[in-house]
Structures are given as C-alpha cells and as structure tokens.
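FORM 7B: Structural annotation worksheet

SECTION A. Query
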Amino acid sequence: MFLKERQDLIASLIKSQGRVTVTELAEKFEVTEDCIRKDLKKLDSEGRCHRVYGGAVGTTELPDRNVFTRVNDYRPEKRAIAEKAAQLIKPGQTIFLDISTTNLYLAELIAKKDVRCIVVSNMSYGGRASVSWAKPATSGSASDATRPRPACPDSANRAQGAATQSQTATQPSRATVHLPSQ
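SECTION B. Predicted structure
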C-alpha cells in the first residue's frame, strides 16, 4: 500500500469512528507505530485530524457563518417567520434587528409596512444585502415631525442620516432593503 493510500484510509477511519489510536492503526496496516505517528502528523498539518496523546481525533467543522451563503437557505421558512414577526410590530415601538438572515426578510417587510416605528440595526452586508434609509419624494405633514425615525444602519450613513434628519425634520425616512438574488 502506498503512503497516500494509507493516509487517506486513516483519515476516513477518523472521520467515521471519530477517533483512532496509534496502536490500532499500526496493527491494522501492519506498519510501525512510528510510521503511524508520522502519518497522523501529516494529516494533522493538512487539517484532516487533530493529534492527541496515543492517537488522533476528527476535526469538528464549524457551522457556516457567512451571511451571503446562508441568506437563501430555508427562504420560505424565513419569510414565514418574518411575516409572523411583522404582524407583532405596533406603531411607536422600537425594534432592534440583529445581523441575521431572517431579519433581512423582516426588515424588508417593515420597509413595506405602513407602521411608524423605530428600527435600530447593524445590518450592512458589504453592499450585497443591506438596509438603507432615504427620504421620500413627497414632503411630509406637520404631524410627521413627531414621528419616530429609523436609525441609520451603518457608520458611513450615520452622519449623512443625522444631517438629513435635522434638515428635513418634517419629512419621514423610508427604509429600502436590498437582498441578494437567489
């Protein structure tokens, strides 16, 4: 058996069993324990296992935390959750939306919904998915001056948003949500 073949078999054993010992592998492949230790050292350096005293254990894969790759996962379920949450929003409430993919759909619904509320968010997805605020083309009424205003979602828009809000105190802001396409 070639070295690469043995190392691939060891890696598959670790993956299926979760752990292996040097002694077991040496007996199974009829090689010395030193040879197996070298194989495990190589597999560890490749990230295919973690060496421990007397053997090796499998690597644990971390869940995918990238918003761009998760935004389309379970899309119907996320939309259903967002629709239910949007029904719970009452006028005058303050809503904080964290940076989650389900909240992207909720932000989209809030933007379309005719409810006066304050939305505080840290949503900014590098331009691929974001929440931005803009004043409408029509001027607002005097009663709009007391309307709670959405917070600007990222630091680049904070100063601009604050200046716009102070200059146009009678005009409400309107949210726009940009979602990446499927």
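SECTION C. Observations
Strands lie at 19-21, 50-52, 55-57, 94-97, 118-121, 130-134, 174-178. Residues 127-173 have pLDDT under 50 and may be disordered.

SECTION D. Sign-off
Analyst initials: ____
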